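Possible regression after last week's pipeline update?

I re-ran a chain I had predicted before the update to compare outputs. Posting the input and the new output here so someone can diff against the archived version. Not blocking, just want to make sure nothing changed silently.
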Amino acid sequence: KHMSTMSLRRTAKTRRGKQYLKDRQPKLHENPKSILYVHGTKCTQQVQNVFKDFHVLTKEQSKIFSRKRDLRPMDQQPELESLSSKQDASLMFIGTHNKKRPNNITMARMFNSRLLDMAELQVTAFKSMQKYKDVVKPSAASKPCLIFQGHSWDQSAHFKQLKSMLADVFRGPIVPRVNMMGMDRVIVFSADEQNICMRQYMITLKKSGTKLPIVELEECGPAIDFKAGRVIYAADDMMKEALRRPKQLKKKKVKNIEYNEMGDKTGRVHMQTQEIHSMQLRKVKALKPSKEEKKALKGSDKNGNNKRNGKRNNNTSSSSTNSNSGGNTKKKAKRGKGNK
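New output (post-update):
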């Protein structure tokens, strides 16, 4: 066993091989997820056209395998994992067709070349982008705006998984900032209990006379209706490992700074006690006392000074009487000594 595992671990000897292994190593900021479109043994022309339109929407990160492969995605998971590791693809679309599940598309999502989760969608209606001839097509390289309509996306566990997988497919590369003027298309997913409608619209901005322009939407295709099928959920431990963020990317908590429900930043500042009464304020006419207030202040000052002067006079008179009485007693004492 030890020799077999050691033989499977190959070391690169050439410069090209080393670069190949280096590109596949884990990174802090991963590359955009690559998508692989695979045709099964019985893949209808309608599903192939859907893959062509999907390839146009995700052109920079997708490949189409025109050769048909004998794959049963729900039963042959190891073959999907080996194909994913060879092509370095983390998302796969497999088109199949049979009497029980016609025009079936299986979406598979990988993590570390292992199957994470899987879901099926059956195409019930399709209108290609080529049929919208009079509409200006948006650029495929632009980042789209994704809208998920319907309460099913948040209430059902099945639709929550579909929402996560569709967002991974069509969101494009992750960027720190988005120029709103360069956002020229929107992809809308509407869902009810079991059906999903996908529509793409061209965004046009027109002048409104204000800072905010008038936004108009024009359908440019593709228009696809799906029906939700079987699903394989991800294991809890594997999903936890896939969602784990490295320590280098975790934001350090800043003291005394919080964010409210609306996303507004609030801070707390600690200051020493301030003597507000002794602070030099700006002289404003509204803060100046009126004539009546000045008279009242002067009257109060005079009464206070008169009271203080009266107290001082009383204190001085009492002290003078005490001093006089002290002098008389001294004279009497001297006289008494002389008589003796």
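Follow-up from reviewer: compared with the archived run. The chain is about 35% helix and 25% strand. Marking as no regression found.
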